[in-house]
């Protein structure tokens, strides 16, 4: 019999793979790349950010992010604006179209969460929420 650690590892990897496949399918349907959607998710959840902050949250270099943001500006998903108190910094924020895409994509996440936890009791949902918060805090 596998150890609890082995079982947890297997289940977490399986969940990640299934969630990634779901995300890829959703993204493919709207014509944007997965990195673009992740950028929209972060900006939608956190608001306007400096390029360095955004790159850190995405786990990419500022050079890689610059290329991506250029494409997203052309697609009218984001805009660049000068930082109010630091003239050397540029902030990236969602455009109206980017905000709309964020709401649409967030609704899909909410729907998936509701479907996955439909058979859970309120207590089980709270347990899952608390466990997920603890896991996320480790990153």
UniProtKB/TrEMBL annotation:
<keyword id="KW-0804">Transcription</keyword>
<protein>
    <submittedName>
        <fullName>Transcriptional regulator, MarR family</fullName>
    </submittedName>
</protein>
<keyword id="KW-0238">DNA-binding</keyword>
<keyword id="KW-0805">Transcription regulation</keyword>
<dbReference type="Pfam" id="PF01047">
    <property type="entry name" value="MarR"/>
</dbReference>
<feature type="domain" description="HTH marR-type">
    <location>
        <begin position="5"/>
        <end position="137"/>
    </location>
</feature>
<dbReference type="InterPro" id="IPR000835">
    <property type="entry name" value="HTH_MarR-typ"/>
</dbReference>
<dbReference type="InterPro" id="IPR036390">
    <property type="entry name" value="WH_DNA-bd_sf"/>
</dbReference>
<dbReference type="InterPro" id="IPR036388">
    <property type="entry name" value="WH-like_DNA-bd_sf"/>
</dbReference>
<dbReference type="GO" id="GO:0003700">
    <property type="term" value="F:DNA-binding transcription factor activity"/>
</dbReference>
<dbReference type="GO" id="GO:0003677">
    <property type="term" value="F:DNA binding"/>
</dbReference>
